[in-house]
C-alpha cells in the first residue's frame, strides 16, 4: 500500500504499491468484471498516480528520521489526546455505609493526594508523605453541598500508571481530626504552600491510605471506563490512631504520621466511595458511542481494543469510480506511520503534512473513514503556461553585483600602468604630484580648512591650490615608484611630505561613527576602519530604539537587545548561522536565564518564532534546552 516504507514495498504488475505478504488482507479492490481490458488498463494507470507523491513523502520521511522537522510530543493535538485519557477520581463518604461510626466525631475529614517519602520514614512507626493536593470533607454526601462532601483528583491515564513507577506511587490518604466545627476551610479545598490554611493537620488524628496502584489495577478490568462511563467502587480503610506532624517547606510540603498507641478507642473502619471517569468522556465521537449489546462480556475488552484507533482509508481512482481500502491502527498515518492520537489529530496531520491528496473525513458508529484522491493539478509547472514549450520561453537571469570582479579588473588595469620619468623642474612633475594626490582623494581621503569627518580611518589630504602647486614645482620631490590603485583608503606616512604633515597637524579630525576627536597617529595609521563599529555606541542606539516601543515588556526588550548585540558582534548573517548562534547564545547567557525565569521564557518564545519561520529545527531547540538545563543543574556544558 502507499503507506508502506519504500524499502519493503514490492510493486505489482498492476501498478499497485502494495506488498503481497503483509497487505493482501487489508487492501482490496472493487469488482472490475464489468470493465473492458482497455478500461482496466486505464484504471491501473489512474491508480499509479499515487506512486509519485508517495515516493516523495517516503524521501521526506527518511530525511525527517535524521533531522526531524518538529518534536512529535509537542504537537497540540497529541497533547490534548493524552490529557483526555487522564482519569478523574472522586472521593466521598456515604452515611448508609458508615452507620456504625456515625456516633464518632470524625468530621472534618481531610483527603490528601500524596507521594511516600521512604527516606524520612523510620520503620513501621513513622510514615512521611509529600503533599500534592488537599481537600476537606465536612459531612456525608447525602446531606451536604458537593463542594464540601466530595474531593476530586486527576491522575495519569492507565497506560502511564502501568509503565511509570513514579506516577503509580501516589496514595489517597484519609485523615480524621475529630474536630467538627473548628477552622472550616472555604470551598473545601486547601491550597498548598500555605501552612496557615491547614490548621487542623497537626496533633492527634486517625488516618488510612488507598494506593493508586490498587485503584489502577481495578480500573484496568473495568470495561465501562473505556466506554466513557463512570466506574464506581467502595473501599474499606482501616483508620489508625496517630500523631500528625506537618512540615511546610517551600515547594516541599511534607506530613509525617507517628504511631500513637495511647488512644483507648483503637482503630475503626471507614467505607469510602470511589468513582472514576475519563477527563474527555464528554467529548466522545459517534464512533465511540457504538453499542456492544450482542458481544459477549468475555470478548468485549478484546473487541474494544481492536476497534480503538482503527481508521479506514479508501484510495479512490479512475474518476472516483473505483477504490482500494486500507485499515490503520492507533490513528496512524498511512504515508509516514505517525500515530496522531485521535481522529482530529489525524485530520490535522494529513492536511498539514500530506497536502498532495484530497481528503474526505467521515465518522459514524460503524467506522472512521478517510476518502483519499490525488490532486492532479498540483503536478503542473508553475513557471510554464499550458501548451507552451518551456524551451521557447525567455529565460531571465539577474545576478548581484560582485565586489571581487571589480577588484580583479582594477588589478588588471594596475598591471597595465607604465612608469614615466620626468624632469624634476618641469611643470609636468607638479601635475603628476597633483594627480597622485587627487587619486588619494578618490580613494576616500579628503581635507578641508575646518573639522573633517571621513568613513575610513579618516586619513586626510591637503587640497592643492595654485600657490601650493608652485611650491611643489620648486621642490625636489621624486615621483612615486608605484601608483596606488584600489580601495586603499589610507594615507601612507612615507608618502606624506613634512610640510603637508605640518599642515595636517593644524586640523582636527573626527571619527565618522563615534564623532570623537582622533589623534594624528590614528589618522596616519594603516588600519582600515571603514567597517569599524563601536560596540558601546551601537548598544546605546539599540537600547534607545527599543525604549520607543510601548507594547513590549521589559524582559522582551532585554532579550531583543541581547540578541541584537550578539548577532552584531558574531556577524550572524545567513539563515544557516541561526542554529549555532542559538546554541552559543544559550551558553553565553545561560546563567542569567537561570536566575531570571522571565528572561528564559522570552528566550524560549523567541526560539519558537525562529522555528515557525523555518530558521531553527527541533534538534537545535532540544540542544538549547539541554544547555539551559545544564546551567540549572550547575553543569554549564551538558555535552
Name some characteristics of this structure.
disordered N terminus; chromatin regulator; flat; 17 strands; 33% helix; 639 residues; alpha+beta
Task: Explain what the structure shows.
It comes from Rhynchospora pubera. It holds the Pfam family DUF7651. Belongs to the VEFS (VRN2-EMF2-FIS2-SU(Z)12) family. Keywords: Chromatin regulator, Metal-binding, Transcription, Transcription regulation, Zinc, Zinc-finger. One of its GO terms (molecular function) is chromatin DNA binding. The structure is a single chain. Strand 12 and strand 13 form a beta hairpin. This protein has 20 helices and 17 strands. The chain starts with 19 loop residues before the first helix and ends in a 7-residue tail after the last helix. With 639 residues, the protein is an alpha+beta fold. Helix 17 crosses helix 19 and helix 18 runs antiparallel to helix 19. The chain is flat and about 115 Å long. Strands 3-4-10-9-8-6 form a six-stranded antiparallel barrel. Strands 1-13-12-15-14 form a five-stranded mixed sheet.
Ends distance: 42 Å
Give the overall shape, derived from the CA principal axes.
flat
Which regions are unreliable across 5 or more consecutive residues at pLDDT < 50?
A: 2-29, 180-197, 416-493
Class by alpha and beta content:
alpha+beta
Radius of gyration: 40 Å
Overall mean pLDDT: 75
Helix fraction by DSSP (H/I, runs of at least 4): 25-40%
State the major sheet: 6 strands, antiparallel, barrel
Number of strands: 17
SS summary, helix count: 20
Protein name: Polycomb group protein EMBRYONIC FLOWER 2
Domain Polycomb protein SUZ12-like zinc finger: 309-377
Family: Belongs to the VEFS (VRN2-EMF2-FIS2-SU(Z)12) family.
Domain DUF7651: 77-281
Amino acid at each position: 500500500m502507499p503507506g508502506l516504507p519504500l524499502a519493503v514495498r514490492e510493486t505489482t504488475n498492476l501498478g499497485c504499491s502494495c506488498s503481497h505478504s503483509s497487505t493482501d488482507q487489508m487492501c482490496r479492490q472493487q469488482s472490475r468484471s464489468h470493465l473492458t481490458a482497455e478500461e482496466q488498463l486505464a484504471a491501473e494507470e489512474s491508480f499509479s498516480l499515487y506512486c509519485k507523491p508517495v515516493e516523495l513523502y517516503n524521501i521526506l520521511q527518511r530525511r525527517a528520521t535524521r533531522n526531524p522537522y518538529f518534536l512529535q510530543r509537542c504537537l497540540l493535538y497529541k497533547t490534548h489526546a493524552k490529557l483526555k485519557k487522564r482519569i478523574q477520581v472522586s472521593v466521598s463518604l456515604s452515611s448508609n455505609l458508615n452507620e456504625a461510626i456515625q456516633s464518632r466525631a470524625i468530621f472534618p475529614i481531610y483527603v490528601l493526594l500524596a507521594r511516600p517519602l521512604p527516606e524520612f520514614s523510620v520503620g513501621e512507626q513513622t510514615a512521611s508523605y509529600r503533599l500534592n493536593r488537599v481537600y476537606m470533607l465536612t459531612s456525608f454526601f447525602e446531606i451536604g453541598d458537593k463542594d464540601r462532601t466530595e474531593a476530586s483528583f486527576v491522575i495519569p491515564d492507565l497506560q502511564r500508571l502501568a509503565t511509570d513507577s513514579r506516577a503509580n506511587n501516589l496514595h489517597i490518604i484519609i485523615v480524621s481530626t475529630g474536630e467538627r466545627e473548628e477552622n472550616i476551610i472555604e470551598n473545601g479545598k486547601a491550597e498548598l504552600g500555605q501552612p496557615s490554611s491547614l490548621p487542623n493537620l497537626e496533633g492527634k488524628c486517625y488516618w488510612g491510605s488507598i494506593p493508586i496502584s490498587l485503584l489502577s489495577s481495578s480500573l484496568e478490568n473495568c470495561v465501562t471506563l473505556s466506554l466513557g462511563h463512570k466506574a464506581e467502587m467502595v473501599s474499606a480503610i482501616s483508620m489508625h490512631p496517630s500523631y500528625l506532624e506537618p512540615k511546610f517547606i517551600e515547594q516541599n510540603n511534607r506530613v509525617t504520621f507517628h504511631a500513637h498507641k495511647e488512644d483507648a478507642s483503637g482503630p475503626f473502619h471507614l467505607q469510602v466511595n470511589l468513582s472514576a471517569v475519563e477527563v474527555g468522556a464528554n467529548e466522545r465521537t459517534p464512533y465511540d458511542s457504538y453499542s456492544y449489546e450482542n458481544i459477549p462480556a468475555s470478548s468485549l475488552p478484546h473487541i474494544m481494543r481492536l476497534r480503538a484507533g482503527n481508521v479506514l482509508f479508501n484510495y479512490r481512482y479512475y474518476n472516483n469510480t473505483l477504490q482500494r481500502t486500507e485499515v490503520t491502527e492507533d490513528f496512524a498515518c498511512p504515508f509516514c506511520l505517525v500515530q496522531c492520537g485521535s481522529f482530529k489529530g489525524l485530520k490535522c496531520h494529513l492536511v498539514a503534512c500530506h497536502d498532495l491528496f484530497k481528503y474526505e473525513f467521515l465518522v459514524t458508529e460503524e467506522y472512521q473513514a478517510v476518502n483519499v484522491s490525488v490532486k492532479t493539478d498540483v503536478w503542473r509547472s508553475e513557471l510554464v503556461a499550458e501548451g507552451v514549450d518551456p524551451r521557447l520561453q525567455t529565460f531571465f537571469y539577474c545576478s548581484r553585483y560582485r565586489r571581487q570582479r571589480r577588484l580583479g579588473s582594477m588589478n588588471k588595469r594596475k598591471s597595465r600602468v607604465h612608469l614615466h620619468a620626468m624632469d624634476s623642474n618641469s611643470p609636468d612633475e607638479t601635475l603628476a604630484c597633483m594627480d597622485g594626490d587627487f587619486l588619494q582623494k578618490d580613494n576616500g581621503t579628503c581635507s578641508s580648512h575646518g573639522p573633517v569627518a571621513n568613513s575610513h580611518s579618516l586619513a586626510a589630504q591637503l587640497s592643492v591650490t595654485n600657490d601650493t602647486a608652485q611650491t611643489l614645482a620648486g621642490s625636489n620631490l621624486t615621483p612615486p615608484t608605484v601608483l596606488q590603485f584600489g580601495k586603499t583608503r589610507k594615507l601612507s606616512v612615507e608618502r606624506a611630505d613634512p610640510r603637508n604633515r605640518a599642515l595636517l597637524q593644524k586640523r582636527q579630525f573626527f571619527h565618522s561613527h563615534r564623532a570623537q576627536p582622533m589623534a594624528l597617529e590614528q589618522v596616519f595609521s594603516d588600519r582600515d576602519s571603514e567597517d569599524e563599529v563601536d560596540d558601546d555606541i551601537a548598544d546605546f542606539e539599540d537600547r534607545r530604539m527599543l525604549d520607543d516601543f510601548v507594547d513590549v515588556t521589559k524582559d522582551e526588550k532585554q532579550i531583543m537587545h541581547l540578541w541584537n548585540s550578539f548577532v552584531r558582534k558574531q556577524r550572524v548573517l545567513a539563515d544557516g548561522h541561526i542554529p549555532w548562534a542559538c546554541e552559543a547564545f544559550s551558553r553565553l547567557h545561560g546563567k542569567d536565564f537561570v536566575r531570571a525565569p522571565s528572561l528564559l521564557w522570552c528566550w524560549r518564545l523567541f526560539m519558537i518564532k525562529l522555528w515557525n519561520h523555518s530558521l531553527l529545527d527541533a534538534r537545535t531547540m532540544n540542544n538549547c534546552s539541554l544547555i539551559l538545563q545544564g546551567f540549572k543543574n550547575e553543569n554549564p556544558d551538558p555535552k
